[in-house]
Amino acid sequence: IRMVPLDVCHKTRFSREQLNAINKNEHPFCQFVQESVDPWLKINPNKNIEDQGLHLYDSLAMALSLFPDLAKYKDAYVSVETKGEFTDGETVCEFNESIMGQIFKPQPNAEIALDIDVDGFNKIFEERVLNFLLNL
To answer: Parallel, antiparallel, or unpaired for β 71-80 and 110-116?
Structure first.
């Protein structure tokens, strides 16, 4: 099992410029993409210019399933908090670096992506998604 946490996914972006390029193509699917993505870009709470754009959670997960070498992984014991006391459905990773991890030493049950090759991902996304949409 491989897990791609949100902090790693947040290194990906789908920008306004990319959407505008797709929107120039009058193909119905490109228009659908534009109509689906545009509202999310308008309500994006990220005011920092460097952080503008949509995060590509599913696209990154799919890319890593095809090109696992795009990420650096670390083994961990992962559990899901289900009681809802402090979180609801949050995954908790134990890398056996905490005091409890050093005492109980749970066996890893997943590989956790700690970092990605952003340029490598962007190249694949451009080749496989953007170029496809631009050339419909």
So the answer is: antiparallel
Q: Using CA atoms, how far apart are residues 99 and 29, in angstroms rounded to an integer? A: 52
DSSP string, 19-41: HHHHHTS--HHHHHHHHHHHHHH
Rounded distance, CA 47 to CA 9, Å?
18
Q: Is the pLDDT of residue 83 over 80?
A: yes
pLDDT one-digit tens code per residue, 39-65: 888 876 656 655 578 889 999 999 999
From residue 64, give the alpha-carbon distance in Å to each of 14, 27, 72, 112, 121.
Answer: 17, 29, 10, 12, 9
What is the C-alpha separation between 32 and 64, in angstroms, rounded? Answer: 26
Selection from 59, 57, 71 nearest residue 110 by Cα = 71
Can you give the pLDDT at residue 123? 96
Q: For 1-12, what is the mean pLDDT?
A: 94
Q: Which residues pair with 74 in a beta bridge?
A: 112
Helix, strand, coil % over all residues of the chain, rounded to 5: 50, 20, 35
Model's pTM, two decimal places?
0.82
